[in-house]
Design a protein that fits this description.
Blueprint (H helix, E strand, L loop, with lengths): L13 E2 H20 L6 H19 L1 E4 L3 E7 L2 E6 L3 E4 L5 E6 L3 E11 L5 E12 L2 H6 L4 H19 L19 H16 L4 E13 L1 H41 L6 H16 L16
């Protein structure tokens, strides 16, 4: 049968400075009672010993809390509450007091080798900003909540990488999110999944971002050549489109201004020459025609 989840409750505690002076007064009163027993009567000595013991018990119940720090109080194994009041505090001396930090902390998920949506091996890493929201859940519902968070964060990153492709491709639908291009969407999805996984430990996720993203070394060179080829094809398409536009503009300008009349064959030759000049990735050598246009 699954144990019920714990919920944080406020602990009963007192001002530590007041209790410090009370304990100190009891110690002084006990010492004075023992010292003032001139007839060696056992009653004042017994009273003094009891006062000293009471003073020790009062002083033992003191503890100090820093800002954004809490103390979890338990009495004989039973949860008594959580004290979030900073400063010198006092609680039942028989209660065990375990301090826990409530500050925001970072957890770095080292680069992991996983498969993306296409099955390509990639390396992915992330950093998670978190803090304890419910101290009772963090301490009593999981065993070593920091270790628990580390494993859950790694699992979430692995699962996230399998949901998205590393980069765009022909097999992806238009507008589909990728790990490289959709950083904001991926980060939001990571925060949501981490929040669901961390909820059992009473921890909230403040932020999560990918810190490392790359193809695995065994396919990095192949994918680099693929990206270079895609870049060359894209550049060539733009060059050809611009060259066609320029040739069309040139022919239209010659025709409208009636600078020269060209038949279809000469137009084809002119288009071929202009496209060679505009689309070539090397410098072209011009040939000057000193005769007539048709020589």
């Amino acid at each position: 049968m699954q144990n019920a989840s714990h919920r944080e409750s406020e602990a009963r505690s007192a001002n530590g400075y007041v209790m410090f002076f009370i304990g100190l007064a009891l110690e002084l009163a006990g010492a004075l009672s023992i010292w003032s027993s001139r007839l060696l009567s056992w009653q004042p000595i017994l009273l003094g010993v009891l006062l000293c013991l009471a003073g020790v018990l009062v002083l033992v119940g003191l503890y100090m809390l820093q800002p954004n720090e809490a103390a979890i109080l338990t009495l004989f194994g039973a949860y008594s509450g959580t004290d979030r009041n900073a400063g010198l505090r006092w609680a039942n001396p028989l209660q065990a007091k375990r301090k826990i930090s409530l500050r925001a902390r970072n957890h770095n998920v080292a680069a992991l080798k996983v498969n993306d949506k296409r099955g390509n091996p990639v390396e992915i890493g992330a950093v998670v900003v978190w803090r304890v929201r419910d101290s009772a859940q963090a301490v009593f519902d999981v065993d070593n909540y920091e270790f628990f968070l580390g494993l859950q964060a790694e699992t979430a990153v692995r699962h996230l990488a399998a949901l998205y492709a590393y980069d765009d491709g022909d097999d992806l639908s238009e507008g589909e999110t990728t790990l490289r291009a959709g950083q904001d969407v991926v980060a939001s999805a990571l925060c949501k999944e981490l929040g669901e996984r961390f909820a059992q430990a009473g921890v909230e996720v403040l932020d999560a971002k990918l810190t490392h993203l790359a193809y695995a070394p065994e396919i990095a060179q192949v994918m680099l050549r693929r990206q270079q080829a895609e870049a060359v094809v894209s550049a060539r398409q733009k060059i050809v489109h611009g060259a066609v536009t320029m040739v069309e503009s040139a022919l239209q300008g010659l025709s409208e201004r009636k600078i020269v009349e060209l038949d279809d064959e000469r137009k084809a030759a002119m288009v071929s020459n202009l496209l060679v000049v505009l689309c070539s990735d090397r410098e072209t050598q011009p040939i000057v025609n000193a005769g007539t246009l048709y020589n």
